[in-house]
Amino acid sequence: MDQVVWNGTLVRVLERQTLRGREYLRIEHSGGAASWVAAHEVAPCDPADFIEAAPAHLSTEGEHQAEQESERVTCSDCGDPFKSTSMQMLADGLTLVCAGCLDTDYVYCYDREWRRTDACVFVASDNQWYPADSRHICFPNDTHEAALRVDCSRFGGYWYTQDWIDENTFVCISCDGHFHNDAYGGNGSCESCSASDDGDIEPADADATRLGFVGAPRDGFFYGVELEMECLSRQRADAAAQILDALAGHVIVKEDGSLDDGFEVVTRPATLAVHREKFTPRIFELAESAGMSGDHATCGLHVHVSRAPMSWLQIGKMQCFLHSPENAEFVRIVARRGSNSYAENRSHKTVTSAFKGEQDTRYTALNLLNAATVEFRIFKGTLKHLEFHAALEFCAALVRYCGNAARSIKEATSWVHFVAWLSRSQQRAEFPHLCSFLAAHDYDTGNKPIPEAYRSNATKKAA
Fold first, then answer.
1. Fewest CB atoms less than 10 Å from the CB: which of 35, 187, 380, 431?
2. HSE-up of residue 160 (Cα within 13 Å, Cβ side)
3. 99 or 387, which is more confident?
4. 273: which residues sit within 8 A by CB, 6+ positions away?
5. 3-state percent helix, strand, coil for the chain, nearest multiple of 5
6. Is the dihedral of CA 330, 335, 337, 342 positive or negative?
7. Model confidence over 246-298: pLDDT tens digits?
8. In sequence order, what E strands does 86-126 have?
9. In Å, how far are 158, 250, 450 from 270, measured between CA atoms?
C-alpha cells in the first residue's frame, strides 16, 4: 500500500475511491484505526524520512493482517459485519458505517466529516456539502437554494442573494432607509422623503378613475392609458406641472417604482375619440421640451380596457393572439419591443387559459388580474403621436376583432387574418393611426389613402 503524510504523521493508504467527482483515501493511522479523508488533505512522502519516528503499528504486515481478521464490527446502517479497518467513524464518534453505505447514503462535508445525505445540502457556489442546519448557510427567498450567508443579506426579514439585493433595492440618500425599488421616489430618495419636492406627483397607488369616465361608447368599452416617462434634464415636479396643465382634468401624474427618475401619466377612462382629442401632437412636443423621454429602457405604455362587456371566449382569443409563436414577430413590431420582465410574452396559452384562471402574475402580455379591466402591457413607451395612438387603436381593434363569436379560433388568433380585416375601409377609417403604423412597417393594409377626417397632423406631415 502507498504511504502518505496526514497531519504530520506517516500513514498507510488502504483504499482509494472517487465519490461525486472527488477523490477520497481510506487511511490507517494510530492504533490501527482507519478513516476516510479527502485526497487534497494528504501529501506524498518518502517513508525513509519517517523511519525513526515510525509508529509501532507499522511494524509488520503479518501483525496487521492478524489484527484485522480478529476484529469485526457491525455497520450501523446495513447491519452487516465488517473488519473494523474498513469502517468509517462518523462525526458523533460512535457510529461506524461500511464503505458501501458510505458511498450511497453519505456525503463528505466542508468540515471533513461524513454525514447522511438527507441531512445535508449542497452549496453550488462553494462546491461543498453542509449540514442542513449549519449556521454558515441560508436559503435566499429569491432562489430557495442553499447559499453561504456571507454571500447573502437580509431584507424585509428574509435572506436574499446579493445580486438580488443590488438589482431590486436601494438605500435612500435622505433617511438611509433600505427600500425595495417600488418605493423609489426619485433623485436617490424614497417616496416619503421625496414627497415634499415632487409637487403634483401623486403616490403610486393613486387612482385616475376619480376624474370620472368620459364619452359614451356604443360598444361599452372605455380605455385608460398609463404612459411612463423618464426625466432627463430638469426637475420632475416642473415637468409634471407642465403636463398636468396641458391635459388638465384628463390625467394624473404619479410615482412608478420601475422608473429611474420619472413618473407615470395616467388617464381617466375615456373613449378613443376623447383620447385623440386630448393627446394632440403638441402634447408630445411639450413633454419632450420639458426634458421627458418615453423611449427609455425603463418606460412602457399600458392600456386598460373595460372588462364587463367582454366574454371569456373573447378574452381567451385575445390572449392566444398575443401569445401565439406564429404572431411573435408581428406583436414585436406593434409593441416596438420584445418580451421582457415587465410584459413577459409566455407561450402555451389556450382559449380556456383565461377562464381557468391560470395567470399568476401581472407581468404578462395581457394582464387579467384586475377586476374591472384587462391590461395590455406589451408596448414600449413613446412620446411620438403616431406610435401612441397606434398602440391605443391596436388594443381597440383586437378587442373588436376577437369579439366576433362567429370568427373561428384559428382565424381570430392569426395576424394574417387580422391584417386582412384591417384593410377593409370601415376598419381603416376607424383605426387610421394603426393602419399608417403597419403600412410604415411593410404590412399591407390595403394601400388605400386614409380618409382626411381621420388623419393626424403627424400623418399629414409624413404624407
1. 187
2. 15
3. 387
4. 215
5. 35, 25, 35
6. negative
7. 998 999 999 888 887 888 999 999 999 999 999 999 999 988 887 777 778 88
8. 88-89, 96-97, 106-108, 114-116, 120-123
9. 43, 9, 24
User: Which has the closest alpha carbon to 393: 357, 439, 427?
Assistant: 427
Domain boundaries, the chain: 3-125, 137-167, 197-462
Q: How far apart are CA 418 and CA 214, in angstroms?
A: 29
Sequence-ordered list of residues with C-beta below 8 angstroms from that of 430, at least 6 positions apart, any chain: 397, 454
Task: Give residue 452's pLDDT.
Answer: 44
pLDDT band at 207 (very low <50, low <70, confident <90, very high): very high
Of 227, 254, 267, the residue nearest 385 (C-alpha):
227
- Show the cell assigned to 359: 395567470
The answer to whether 323 and 349 have CB atoms below 8 angstroms apart is yes
Grid coordinates belonging to 247: 391635459
| 63 pLDDT above the threshold of 60 | no
Which residues have CB under 8 Å from 66's CB, separation 6+?
Answer: none
* Alpha-helical regions (H) of 51-110: 61-70, 99-105
**Encoded amino acid at 286, one letter:** L
Closest CA to 11 of 66, 62, 57: 57
Residue position matching grid coordinates 442546519: 133
List pLDDT tens digits, range 134-160: 888 888 888 888 889 888 888 877 888
Q: How many residues does the chain have?
A: 463
CB atoms within 10 A of CB 76: 14
User: Is residue 321 within 8 Å of residue 412, measured between CB atoms?
Assistant: yes
pLDDT tens string 46-61: 655 554 444 444 445 5
pLDDT of residue 447: 44
CA distances from 327 to 18, 162, 314, 337, 345 (A): 52, 38, 17, 14, 11
Mean pLDDT across the stretch 100-114? 88
Q: How far are the Cα atoms of 117, 124, 174 from residue 104, in angstroms, in the given order?
A: 9, 20, 56
